[in-house]
Amino acid sequence: MVNGPALPKGVLSLHALPADHHEGPWDHIVTPPGLKERLLSQALLTLLHGRRLATLAGLPHGLIVLAGPPGTGKTTLARGLAQRAALAVAPEGATTYLEIDPHAFPSELLGESQRAITRLLRDTIPELAMRRPHTIVLIDEVESFAVARSAASMETNPVDVHRSTDAVLAGIDAIAAELPRVLFLTTTNFLTGVDEAFLSRADLVITFELPDTATIASIIRHSLVELAGLWPELAKLAADEELHARVAERCAGWDGRRVRKLVLAALAQRLDVAMDPGRLEADDLMAATGVPAGAA
């Protein structure tokens, strides 16, 4: 793994996949049936057949957009997808994986953002893509990278915003044409903040919603199963589906991240449980929701 000063401007991390430290996230995120398979299929279509598909009139861009509220697991799922895709194509060679910091490019100097983005997409990524047969690029909070030009604030520099987004679009087009086995995974909390032309280039856009109570119950069960792996005496709580449903009702409207932290909060409800998590009880989970008994 490469990090620190050696990284090119705007690159947060750079390493090869598959990698042990990327294992886990894919299985931890609870999604609607079929969604993970759809994501993996789209990723493999680009990585395995991008070169052939690039000859079609409807040029694929190797671009996936995951949108939705914070805490719905978009970034974690994207990282897990990168690992799963890299495992699937491993017989053809390792995959170069890099994460981009979209906040590294805005500048008060007219034209500097455009130049920096152009260097990233026209020089840095192509150079890195030459190292291995496949390349996956993760851009979190892509609304800061491909800013919607129609909503550019007049309080900032709208000319520079337009030029920067133009540079993103031109760079994505160039990579799609010249390096069709590069896959872009992007996430956004604000789909309306992403430029319309960028979204039109996406091969797949998936919008995540806050989990319903059934999904929340599944997350609670999964978290308790993991905990029972550390403290086997909690196996009964992990198997109590009625309890999971009752707790889920109290967590309606929560995002997935907050639901997962519920179990940690439950462990801290009482000092004796904090000292020995195997003492966790159903009442601790209910209390951790912060909803008074009878209120939900």
TrEMBL record:
This is AAA+ ATPase domain-containing protein. Transmembrane segments: none annotated. InterPro entries: AAA+_ATPase (IPR003593), ATPase_AAA_core (IPR003959), P-loop_NTPase (IPR027417), Pch2-like (IPR044539). Pfam families: AAA. Keywords: ATP-binding, Nucleotide-binding. Residues 60-212 form the AAA+ ATPase domain. The keyword Kinase does not apply. The keyword Secreted does not apply. It comes from the Bacteria.
